[in-house]
Amino acid sequence: MIKLKSLILNILLSVGTGLLSSVLTGNFSSLYQDVNRPAFAPPAWLFPVVWSILYVLMGISAYIIGESDSNVKSSALAVYYVQLAVNFLWSPLFFVFKFYWFSFFWLLLLWVLVLVIIIKFFKINKSAAYLQIPYLIWLTFAAYLNLSVAILN
């Protein structure tokens, strides 16, 4: 049985993390237009769409783990919360401070954390782990894009 309040709170925590980071970053679209980008860079409007979907999937995944009976769910969720914090800081590092190279390595840290989450979640609930895979795929693309921006700027 779905615990709606817990599900909503998990989704709000995830989406809220992204939203707060976005608010602190400022006009993302304008900042994105100001950097030299590779030819494969997607349009600015795509990022909020993709990230919104990913944050919802992340929240659902965390909800599944949080409601599980696993005795290792606390350590799995601890890594999840750490990656939320790392995720939160990437946008200001990249867009506000223009630390393109540092942001790339920060993104690699985030990628590793998400991989650890997938492994830990998989041991608890395979569906929760699978919900994180689109996030890892997007981070792979984002790291390639970030590296390209660092090289071009």
What descriptive keywords fit this protein?
153 residues, mainly alpha, 7 helices
Distance between the termini: 51 Å
Order of helices and strands: HHHHHHH
**What is the typical, i.e. mean, pLDDT?**
96
Radius of gyration: 16 Å
The helix tally amounts to 7
Structural class: mainly alpha
Label the overall shape.
elongated
* Beta-strand fraction estimate: under 5%
Unreliable stretches: none
Sheet having the most strands = none
What is the β-strand count?
0
- Helicity level: over 70%
Please characterize this protein's 3D structure.
There is one protein chain. The protein has 153 residues and is mainly α. It is elongated. It is built from seven helices and no strands. It is 81% helix and 0% strand.
Topology:
Layout: H1 4-25, H2 28-34, H3 46-66, H4 73-96, H5 100-124, H6 126-130, H7 133-152
Helix pairs in contact: 1-3, 1-4, 4-5, 5-7
